[in-house]
Design brief:
326 residues; alpha/beta; Rossmann fold; 4-stranded parallel β-sheet; binds ligand FEC
């Protein structure tokens, strides 16, 4: 019995792999507009603080590879072939799609390494992949829109946070701050599901841990003239400190799944510094990265989509995906 090959298009934000690539990266994020010299120097300085470049590229590769291995161990009837496509650096999403087409892949599952859907972020990944696929006759990409409430994702974060809470012991003066990347306020006015999905992830984790004092905040807002979603995590920290006398803070950047600039700088530098100024303690659970339990969670999500596709296609039984635990 020969397995049917299916493309696994794993899409992620991307990061410069060397300091001399930071300007091009920043320009890409700004839709082709070069940043001002002070803004560029500010970004280079932030990368320098976390070691010159971000570990994100390596982590994304590890996540993609381990996910593919896990799928190929646990799903029978299909052979997954990995294609990594980045939003802002090479290999770009379009490069990955063109590679798939060149390899003769006819069907693929698209997974974005960000749990919450927004028209302003995740949709852009999807649109670029689908636009690229249109150039190739017969290449179909089936997208996974979001996975913010996946039970094993919730369980993963609950476990990670529990480890931090256990270090603190007495939780009477502890606040847990969940966060995701802020976005311009105008997206909420347009009914974007992103803020609601982030809040739901936080609530599900809080319920699993029976948390008493927690809040959802936003981080890493852009320095543009327009308003971004708040409250910012720093504002929440001050509020918990002044209004509830909190002296321990657990920051949980649930909108991200890897150690990268926004976590290693915006949380581990900026939030930590604030807690130190307040005389409070800083905690931040380890990120999902390529943790086997997180990879298993992603595998469940992809495998479920593969099984769904078979049902939609009513494919012949010999090619149907079956999930085994391993
Ligand atoms: O290199 C690294 O380690 C950091 C990678 C990185 C990730 C990331 C994730 C998200 N962003 C989101 C939204 C925006 C919006 C803007 C924006 C700007 C930046 C800049 C850098 C950057 N982002 Fe990012 N983001 C990462 C890095 N981001 C660098 C440049 C500005 C600065 O920091 O000074 C504003 C520009 C625009 O309008 O497009 C908006 C969202 C996510 C989480 C979802 C995802 O991963 O796609 C949302 C990782």
């Amino acid at each position: 019995m020969s397995d049917q090959t299916i493309g696994l298009l794993v899409m992620a934000y991307g990061t410069p792999e060397r300091p001399d690539q930071i300007e091009a990266y920043y320009t890409h994020i700004r839709h082709g507009r070069k940043p001002s010299e002070p803004a560029l120097q500010n970004l280079i300085a932030r990368y320098r603080t976390i070691g010159g470049v971000s570990p994100l590229a390596e982590i994304t590769r590890a996540q993609g590879e381990r996910l593919t291995e896990k799928l190929n161990r646990t799903v029978t009837g299909k052979k997954f072939k990995l294609y990594l496509g980045m939003k802002h650096t090479a290999p770009f999403i379009e490069d990955a799609v063109s590679q798939m087409a060149g390899d003769g892949v006819k069907e693929a599952i698209g997974l974005i390494l960000a749990p919450h859907y927004s028209d302003y972020s995740v949709r852009l990944y999807m649109d670029r992949a689908q636009a690229a696929a249109q150039a190739y006759d017969g290449l179909k990409i089936h997208m996974i829109d979001d996975w913010y409430d996946e039970p094993s994702f919730i369980a993963f974060w609950a476990r990670q946070i529990r480890k931090e809470l256990d270090k603190i012991g007495d939780l009477s003066k502890t606040a847990v701050i969940f966060s995701a990347h802020s976005l311009p306020v105008k997206i909420i006015q347009n009914g974007d599901p992103y803020p609601g999905q982030v809040k739901e992830t936080a609530q599900l984790i809080a319920d699993a841990l029976h948390l008493k004092r927690f809040a959802v905040g936003w981080q890493s807002a852009g320095r543009t003239g327009e308003p971004w979603i708040g409250p910012d995590v720093r504002e929440l920290t001050r509020q918990f400190y002044h209004e509830s006398g909190c002296t321990a803070f657990v920051y949980c950047p649930i909108g991200f799944i890897a150690d990268h600039l926004e976590v290693l700088y915006d949380n581990d530098q900026v939030c930590r510094q604030l807690t130190e100024e307040l005389g409070a303690a800083y905690y931040r659970p380890a990120m999902p990265n390529a943790d086997p339990q997180f990879i298993a969670c992603l595998a469940t999500i992809v495998a479920r989509r593969a099984v769904q596709l078979d049902r939609e296609d009513k494919a012949p039984a010999r090619n149907q995906a079956t999930i085994h635990s391993a």
